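seq:
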Amino acid sequence: FPDTLVGTDSHTPHVDALGVIAVGVGGLEAESVMLGRASYIRLPDIVGVELTGKRQPGITATDIVLAITEFLREQRVVSTYLEFYGEGADALTLGDRATISNMTPEFGATAAMFYIDDKTIDYLRLTGREEEQIALVENYAKTAGLWSDSLKTAKYERVLKFDLSSVGRNIAGPSNPHRRVSTSDLAKEGISGVVENEEGLMPDGACIIAAITSCTNTSNPRNVIAAALLARNANTKGLMRKPWVKTSLAPGSKAVQSYLEDANLLTELEQLGFGIVGFACTTCNGMSGALDPEIQKEVIERDLYATAVLSGNRNFDGRIHPYAKQAFLASPPLVVAYAIA
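struct:
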């Protein structure tokens, strides 16, 4: 049997990327497990999801997971366990796999598993696990039939196929994570356009919150580093965030702060306004805090249709901020781009 984990966070399936069955449960059930009682898991419907193709250059894990979310919602995978496999899955980093597994609740599924392979072992070594433990994981996975090679011959009652090469740059919104929109289609969809406005006033439809946040994306080094490099380029060119945009950086752990500091990139994000506000859900969970009083006053008095953009996993109506009538999910580098656009 694979390792198992239950957690009270709905995005506990994040850990599925490591080949661990991780599911979200209620607080009472989690407490009973902590007290030594069993947690009963119903034998689920298991759906195989074959990932084919290779992602296009410049496409982030966020772009991929938003496209997969749209696809899986259409396929109705509610309460199932998903098992990702195929050449596309082989090519994904652990960070990319975790971004996909993280949004299991948004798929409607219960778990979204990836198999254990050399990349899993490399990740365990990179994150400081003892060699004895790493060897145990590898040996057990191969012996128990949980290693990637053993699962390539698995047969599923239901198989879905998703082509990674079909994914372009995406955002999701203005509400619901599965409402994917290609950035090249924003004008066609009526989401963006030319806005005429008086000098010194906030435009209607302005982005008032830009947040790099959530376990979905800040746990992926490639996404965070891409955002920091974009911030550095913006600073070099003298670009600044718009004065009405409230910016923030809320990593999932202090490891993010550590590697940004080691790469001399945290200061680049801070210069653009993306300073660390905490290691928590923050904006993704509707806890972005108050707006600048003058900005809030203008939004109210002019009845502006303000928006938010965040690298989170949920953007339901009214969730992000009372004065952000729309909210869009986007990759961390796109969050930076929209803050200065």
